[in-house]
């Protein structure tokens, strides 16, 4: 079974943000504006994204399979 992934894009700068937000961006592998990363869709990654929604956006979410 293939692992689910999501694509995340950085939409705002980490300048003048608390250090924890900058570290969260680094943890997601983002460091410059408009960079994207394809990440495994896990609760930990979702939590990181939800903690900085003003800095990132989810570009691609896989659709659920219809059975």
UniProtKB/TrEMBL annotation:
Q: Domain Large ribosomal subunit protein uL30-like ferredoxin-like fold: where?
A: 7-56
What molecular functions are annotated in GO for this chain? structural constituent of ribosome
* One GO location term (cellular component): cytosolic large ribosomal subunit
Q: Which SUPFAM superfamilies does the entry link to?
A: Ribosomal protein L30p/L7e
Q: Tell me the GO BP annotations in alphabetical order.
A: translation
Q: Which Pfam families match?
A: Ribosomal_L30 (PF00327)
Annotated InterPro entries: Ribo_uL30_ferredoxin-like_sf, Ribosomal_uL30_bac-type, Ribosomal_uL30_ferredoxin-like
Q: Which UniProt keywords apply?
A: Ribonucleoprotein, Ribosomal protein
Query: By its UniProt entry, which NCBIfam families does this protein fall under?
Result: rpmD_bact
Fetch the PANTHER family from UniProt.
LARGE RIBOSOMAL SUBUNIT PROTEIN UL30M, MITOCHONDRIAL RIBOSOMAL PROTEIN L30
Membership in a protein family: Belongs to the universal ribosomal protein uL30 family.
Summarize the subunit comment.
Part of the 50S ribosomal subunit.
This protein's name = Large ribosomal subunit protein uL30
Q: Which organism is it from?
A: Hyphomicrobium album
Where is the organism placed in the taxonomic lineage, from the top?
Bacteria, Pseudomonadati, Pseudomonadota, Alphaproteobacteria, Hyphomicrobiales
């Amino acid at each position: 079974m293939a692992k689910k992934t999501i694509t995340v894009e950085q939409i705002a700068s980490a300048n003048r943000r608390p250090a924890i937000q900058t570290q969260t961006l680094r943890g997601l592998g983002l460091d410059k504006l408009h960079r994207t990363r394809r990440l495994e869709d896990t609760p930990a990654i979702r939590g990181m994204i939800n903690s900085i929604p003003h800095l990132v956006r989810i570009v691609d979410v896989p659709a659920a399979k219809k059975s």
